[in-house]
Each structure stands twice: as structure tokens, then as C-alpha cells.
Amino acid sequence: MEENFIPLSPDDKFRFSCTNRLSCFNECCRDLNQYLTPYDILRLKKSLGISSGMFLKTYTSHHTGPETGLPVITLKTDSAPRSICPFVTPSGCKVYKDRPSSCRTYPLARLVSRNRESGRLSEYYMMIKETHCLGFNNGKEQTVREWIIEEDIEPYNRMNDMLMEILSLKNQITPGELDIKSGYIFRMALYDLDAFRSHLFSNKIETDDFKEEEINAAKQDDTVLLQIAFSWVKQNLFTKTSSINI
Hints:
The protein is an alpha+beta fold. The protein folds into two domains: 3-152, no CATH class; 158-237, no CATH class. The protein is 39% helix and 17% strand. It has helices at 38-48, 52-59, 101-105, 144-150, 154-173, 180-191, 193-201, 212-218, 222-237, and strands spanning 3-8, 13-15, 60-64, 71-75, 88-89, 92-93, 108-114, 121-130, 141-143. The strands form four sheets. A three-stranded antiparallel sheet has the order 1-8-7. It has a two-stranded antiparallel ribbon with strand order 2-9. A hairpin with a 2-residue loop joins strand 5 and strand 6. Helix 1 crosses helix 2 (52-59), helix 5 runs parallel beside helix 9 (222-237) and helix 6 (180-191) runs antiparallel to helix 9 (222-237). It starts with a strand and ends in a 9-residue tail after the last helix. The model has no long low-confidence stretch (mean pLDDT 89).
């Protein structure tokens, strides 16, 4: 599929709107190789009313990065030749309110880099102008910043940046492939959030580094729980003195 990638700054304007009146409607939900972040899975499993373990088993494929040992979680598409998203319907996406960050950001793609000295993140955007897409002929003109607000992308960016921080730290502290146990712990804590909650509240995980109000909030709030999981993974897997037993 031919694509044009157009760099955009946060204040650059573009025009885009997708509706079911367009002949290309749902085309972007085909030919997928959809990677899922921990926050994507949190939102999707809550939208479907199932556990993270059931979501992973039913809707995802999992393999291990050959050079990193880190889990790679992708959305399991149907067996048809065009690899259709399991959540697409003739009327559109049935999990639209909680769709993954890459779907939510489309037709933009967000690129992030981290300064090794300062640790500060810089973000860049690219507009993906696919030749089949008619959405660029519709909608109001708006800036990238306005699109981020309108599509409620900021919570996804914030949580995904926590993952980026851990990946950067992993590359510094533990370059190369993780061992099997560490890879399992990484996947359990960040992607199988309900399993992490079970470990956390059965006293299999030390909570001394977290405030009592955080732990109490995590009993009901998955977002707080994921933030704790990010901190726990960072402290226990990717510090120079880390060691872990669960």
C-alpha cells in the first residue's frame, strides 16, 4: 500500500474526518499488524468487561523479541486474507471509546526520542496519507495539538511514555536479551494487570516503596495499578542492584 509520510509540528494544521459515509470506511481496520501497549490492553479489557488474562488469551498473539527478550503483544486478527481487526463491524469499531493509541492517533503517528543526558522526551508527529483514504477531504482544519485534545490522546501518550522510559532504562542497564524469568515478570506486571494485582495484594510483592494511598487506590483504579507496575518493574528489573523473587 503506497503511503506518504508528512512531518508535522504540534502547531501545524491538517484536515481529516472519517465517517461511515465514505467508501473507504473500515479499510484502515484491515491488513493489520497492530502492536498493543500496556495501557491499550488496560482500556480494551475494561471496555470488554473481561480480565487482562482472558483478553490476552482471546485477542492477542505473543512472541519474544529475539534481541531484547521483551514481550511483543499484537492484536490477533481473523484468519481471512486481509487480517481484519476483531473489533470492527459494518457500522464501525465496537470498542471505539477505548481503541488503541495508534488507532486513536491516526492519521497521525507519534514518534518519541529521549535525550540521554537530560532524560527529556521530545515528540514528533507524522501524517500518514494513505492513497485509499478519503478522510483528508473532510472535516475541519485543526492543529496537531487540537487533534490530541479532541481525540483524548494525552492519557495514552502519558502512559506510553512510562513504557518508553522503562525500555530506555533497560537498554542502559541490561542491554541485550532478558532472561526468561525477567521476561515473564515484565509481561505479567505490565500486560497481565489483573495477575499483577493478585500478586500485589497477596503480599507476594513488596509495597514499601509505594504510598499507602496509592496501594489503596490501586485496588479499584487500573490506571493507578499500572503506574505502580511501571515503577515496580523499573525498580526490580532495571536498576543496578535489582533482584526479585515472586
